Amino acid sequence: MKNNIFTQTTVALLLIVLLLFILNPFHFWMPPMLATMILVAVLVLFAFYASFVLSERAFDEWEAVHRLQAGRSAYLLGSVVLMAGIIIQAFQHHLDGWLIGALVVMLVSKIVTRAYTDSTE
User: Fold this and answer.
1) So what's the pLDDT on residue 46?
2) Sign of CA dihedral 61, 62, 65, 70
3) Alpha carbon of 62 to those of 53, 57, 58, 71, 97: distances in Å?
4) Is residue 48 classed exposed, middle or buried when 0-12, 13-18 and 19+ CB atoms within 10 A define those classes?
5) Mean per-residue pLDDT for 2-26?
6) CA distance 114 to 2
7) Secondary element (H or E) of residue 80
8) Three-state secondary structure call for residue 49
9) For residue 61, which phi and psi values (nearest 5 degrees)?
10) Is the separation of the CB atoms in 45 and 18 below 8 Å?
11) % of residues, the chain, pLDDT over 70
12) Kind and range of the H or E run holding 56
């Protein structure tokens, strides 16, 4: 179990580093081939990370509570960041539809998943 957490954390940190490189925060020249390679690496690492999330299993009640708290925290913080982006861009009069779309997908998936799990109990 501890090794899985270490591997999952390592993959998440690598994914974060690559995502920061995509933003190009240091404004270095990024040739198209390097940008493409970074995008492919991000896609592969995200798929790897998603496989960890999908394969998580709780062995007792405390692990289940910890998973629920982590999921709830991630959902709420993701929603807050998207709402902040929507508000900031709305005040700049340049609202990106992807922010609204991502928030809508999060909200709909939460509602549908909750309805499905409530109906199977």
Assistant:
1) 87
2) negative
3) 17, 12, 8, 14, 39
4) middle
5) 77
6) 30
7) helix 61-91
8) helix
9) -65, -35
10) yes
11) 91
12) none
Q: Closest Cα to residue 114, out of 75, 61, 82? A: 75
pTM of the model: 0.70
Burial class (CB in 10 A: 0-12, 13-18, 19+), 94: exposed
Q: For residue 84, report the phi and psi dihedrals to the nearest 5 degrees.
A: -60, -45
pLDDT tens-digit map of 66-80? 888 988 999 999 999
Asked if pLDDT for residue 3 goes beyond 70, the answer is no
Q: Do 95 and 89 meet the contact criterion of CB atoms below 8 Å apart? A: yes
Q: Which long-range contacts (CB under 8 A, 24 or more apart) does 1-6 make?
A: 4/52
**Spatial CA neighbour of 38 closest among 26, 49, 46:** 46
Higher-pLDDT residue of 5 and 95 is 95
Position 34 confidence tier, pLDDT thresholds 50, 70, 90: confident
